[in-house]
Every structure is written in structure tokens, then in C-alpha cells.
Amino acid sequence: MAASLAGPDLDAAFAALGDPVRRALVTRLAHSDATVGELAKPFDLTPQAISHHVGVLRRCGLVEQRREGTRRPCRLKADHLSLLGTWIDEQRRAWNDRIDALERHLADGEAH
Fold it and tell me: Which PANTHER family match (predicted)?
């Protein structure tokens, strides 16, 4: 799978999103930035476990963390997430084209 140099590692991003906790973190971060402690609140997980999940999302390019004094809020990199959607859309179009071609082929066969 190809990814832009500035974009996420698509293989790593899809693997990261295979985990339900990380998908929930992405959903939460889509609403607003949050610290690891804030992200941990709805989960029965330690902040260290959430920090690990955030690290996975950071390494694949979907989340970034910045320093604001003593806070380190996490932010979803929505542009990188949209690259995953673009890849999925391209695959969907390709498969739809193949299915349309198969339907035309089958219809031509029935006409003869």
C-alpha cells in the first residue's frame, strides 16, 4: 500500500484501527483534543494503557501530541484519517467497476 510521505503509514493505521479502544480514542478525539488522563476516564484502563494506545496512533500518523505547559493534549490528524477514507473509496470504486463489468458481461451472455 502506498502512502504519501506526509501522510500516515496506511498498513500501520489500518492495523491500529483494528483495536476497539483505539477506534474509540479516534472517535473521542474527533470531537476535541484531550489529554491521556481525559481520554482514560471512560475506560476501565490505566492512563499508562491509554498512553500506549495513543503511542500506537501517533506512530502511524493519526494522532499528534503537543506540549502546553504541563499539559500534553492529543489531537486527531483528521487530514491523515481522511487519506484512509480516500483509499477505501478508491477500492470501493474499483470493485464497483468490476461488478458493473461482470453484470454487463452476464447480460450480454443472456442476450445471445
Answer: SLL0088 PROTEIN (PTHR38600:SF2), TRANSCRIPTIONAL REGULATORY PROTEIN (PTHR38600)
